Amino acid sequence: MNNKDLFKAIGHVDGNLVEEANTTRRTNINKKSYIRWGTIAACLAVVVGLAIYKSPSTPQSASLEISQQTQVSASPTGIRKILNYNGYRYAFVGDGAQFKFTGLEPVQSLGTLEYDINPETAKNDGDNNVEENYATTFAVGGKLYEIPTYPSHFRIAVKYEHNYYLAELVAKVNDSEMTAKEYLDMSNLKEHAKEIDILNHMGNDVLKKITDHTLVESIIEGLYSATNADLTNNEYEAIGGAQSEGKSYQLQFNIKDGTEIAMYIIPELKVVSMGDAYYQLPDAFFDQTEDIFAGLIQEALPLY
Questions:
Q1: Distance between CA atoms of 45 and 23, rounded to whole angstroms?
Q2: CB under 8 Å to 222, separation ≥6 — which residues?
Q3: How far apart are CA 220 and CA 193, in angstroms?
Q4: What distance in Å separates the CA atoms of residue 178 and residue 170, rounded to the nearest whole number?
Q5: If DSSP codes are grouped into helix, strand and coil, which group holds residue 8?
Q6: Pairing state between β 163-172 and 98-102
């Protein structure tokens, strides 16, 4: 396994699971292996990847509030909870945590999860269905619903056994490139984001808050300039080194519905994550945001 494979293998970490499983990481996305996690050295332990959600402390919207109701421990089998819909791959937020919708409950049906591709429970045709719409590793039989504030289906709701789950778009099912513009347009951060918090890499310490709406919009607009990163092995090694040395941060967008979407950003390397992909940011982005990251201090990641 080269460094590129290694980083893809561990690039799908949910922030809510980092503290209790920061050496358990998700495996590379391909037809047979993308649904498992791996155990990786701590210097590469926490990487860019999945948008992160947390339960809100205060309601952010009078029309729709989404709050996490349960915490989920790291899966002992290492199976990543994902589903396919309309040509996109979604990850269950909080690795299958339950959520409550207040104000605007999802009602527009998008179909039913039909195909089990969990290698622990699927039949022999599981591998053949990994790119099928309505294939899933979790909540087979669950009903998909449009979230009223996300007609783009960047997020969708899953109702299974009377409970709601939240799923977040992370990639295309066929693993073709998704541009930063595609991701940002579907997430509609321009409309949904209220504030930005810059956290340490682990996500447990707010280092700076950005509340000026003009600056928030400027940062989001700057992200549109990111291009898909074709990283070399040396660049993957540099990312791992930056993370272990405390040079990687969470750029967390506080959303009006009370949830958060986070990207990992390494200013020194001009690298940012959106969904399951890596993107390169131009010098101009950091020329405009240099003061935002100046003086931020965090501890290096512990080695295990």
A1: 6
A2: 281, 284, 285, 288, 289
A3: 9
A4: 9
A5: helix
A6: antiparallel
CB-based burial of residue 204 (10 Å sphere; 0-12 exposed, 13-18 middle, 19+ buried)?
exposed
Paired strand residues for 155 = 168
User: What tokens appear for 26 in the block?
Assistant: 């998700």
Question: pTM for this structure?
Answer: 0.78
pLDDT digits (tens, 9 = 90+) for 50-90: 344 444 443 444 478 999 998 886 666 678 899 999 999 99
**How many other β-carbons are positioned within 10 Å of the β-carbon of residue 162?**
6
Q: Note the pLDDT tens digit of each residue in 188-240.
A: 999 999 999 999 998 889 999 999 999 999 999 999 999 999 989 999 999 99
User: How far apart are the two ends of the chain, measured CA to CA in Å?
Assistant: 21
Pairing relation of β-strands 143-146 and 109-112? antiparallel
Evaluate whether 169 touches 146 at the Cβ level (below 8 Å).
no
245-273 as b/e: b if 16+ CB within 10 A = ebbbbbbbbbbbbbbbbbbbbbbebbbbb
Burial of 2 (0-12, 13-18, 19+ CB in 10 A): exposed
